[in-house]
Amino acid sequence: MISSLILLHCITAVQPIALKIAWHESRFVESATNATGDYGVFQLNLYWQKKRTPGVTELDLLDPEINVKFACNLLENLYNEYYETDDKWWTRYHSYRKSDRIKYARRVNRDAKRLPERARVHPQSDHIPKEKYEHVYHIERQTDRFCQSRYDLNMLYFTIRYYIRRDHWAVLYRCLR
């Protein structure tokens, strides 16, 4: 479940490292906590998270979806800011001190070797197979049923959200025209 939340909320460039970090930090345990005030799958620190998002509580950080959203947002910001200048941009998730970042990168990469196969992200090709968007095409062609069925509306919503999050605008356009 955690890996699917990461794939849903993170941009494609961040997904592989987000999975590695979540595995390293908590082994995908949603209720993980520690003595330094870190909570949830990504072990987000409550003190620093309150500075980023005022009003956040321990219970918010223990909610897997909220935890993953916050972590993906943080990783996307780090990616956008440091990707061009630092090949280990993602280590700033843990610390801004270079010595701590080097140690963190070693630990995450060591633990990533034990990441379950079902949770790994495999490189995507630019071509998306037709079966991935065929159900949207089917919904769009059957407008009478589509307008009456709440299930189809939800499927369309999540499908659109899936392709927008992954910047597959061409596929989305083909699906909905």
CATH architecture of the largest domain: Orthogonal Bundle
Query: What's the level 1 CATH class of the largest domain?
Result: Mainly Alpha
Number of helices: 10
Mean pLDDT: 78
* Largest sheet composition: 2 strands, antiparallel
Number of domains: 2
Number of strands: 2
| Adjacency order of strands in the biggest sheet | 1-2
Low-confidence stretches: 123-151
Characterise this structure.
By secondary structure, the chain is an all-alpha fold. The chain has two domains: 2-119, Orthogonal Bundle (Lysozyme); 130-176, no CATH class. Helices cover 61% and strands 2% of the residues. The protein is built from ten helices and two strands. A two-stranded antiparallel sheet has the order 1-2. The two termini are 32 Å apart. 24% of the residues are buried. Residues 123-151 have low confidence and may be disordered.
Explain the layout of strands and helices.
Elements: H1 2-9, H2 15-26, E1 38-39, E2 44-45, H3 46-52, H4 58-62, H5 64-82, H6 98-112, H7 130-141, H8 143-148, H9 150-165, H10 169-176
Antiparallel strand pairs: 1-2
Keywords:
single chain; 177 residues; mainly alpha; Lysozyme; two-stranded antiparallel sheet; 10 helices; 61% helix; globular
Summarize the entry for a quick read.
This protein has 177 residues and is mostly helical. The protein has helices at residues 2-9, 15-26, 46-52, 58-62, 64-82, 98-112, 130-141, 143-148, 150-165, 169-176, and strands at residues 38-39, 44-45.
